[in-house]
Amino acid sequence: MDTSNLSREELEAKFRDEIRHHYDKKYSYFIRRVILAIAKTGIRHIMLRGIENFKTIPRSVPVIISATHKSHLDYLLIDCVLLEALGYYPCTVAGKNLFHGYFKKMLPKVKGICLDRERIKEENLRKKENIIYLKTFYDYLTEEIFKKSETV
After folding, report:
1. What is the mean pLDDT of the chain?
2. DSSP E strand stretches across 10-117
3. Which pLDDT value is given to residue 2?
4. How would you classify residue 47: left for phi > 0, otherwise alpha for psi between -120 and 50, otherwise beta?
């Protein structure tokens, strides 16, 4: 889609729609059951041991968790364990490259937030629309995620 003729407001609206999640609680619980069945109990118990420290953080404090992953299963496991241990599903920032096929519909339903890494590369930030994208992304995180004390 050619975005060169769009106004700043139109670009922000387009980018916000691309970035935002569309959380579906029932779908998230279904995915949780599937992932935990795949991971079996061994991994889950190891992860649950580390969650005790996380429980001491007040729910009103926004938290960012970073997964140094070797696969895409780890951040889904973290999400599932947090749901099981704390009773809520965290948001997950995922690269736009993952939002295709089945995952394009699935990830936003499990609070997947889309990040277009190409737009935020230093060499690409000279373009006005990429600066607007980055501002929109940060505004979305601040206004829709952190103000609600969501975990990311």
Report:
1. 81
2. 92-95, 112-115
3. 65
4. alpha
CA distance 152 to 94: 11
Q: Does this model's pTM top 0.85? A: no
End-to-end CA distance of the chain: 30
Distance CA 74, CA 53 (A): 19
Reference 1, options 138, 10, 140, 103; nearest CA is 10
Average pLDDT over residues 54-72: 76
Find out whether 48 and 82 touch, Cβ atoms under 8 Å.
no
**Contact partners, residue 116, CB within 8 Å, separation at least 6:** 18, 95, 96, 133
Q: What percent of the chain clears pLDDT 70, i.e. is strictly above it? A: 87
146: pLDDT strictly greater than 70: yes
* Eight-state DSSP code of residue 63: B
For residue range 22-53, what is the model confidence (pLDDT) as tens digits? 888 888 888 877 777 766 655 656 666 667 77
The closest of 10, 41, 11, 25 to 132, measured between CA atoms, is 11
Block residue for tokens 């992953």: 69
| Phi and psi at residue 95, to the nearest 5° | -65, 145
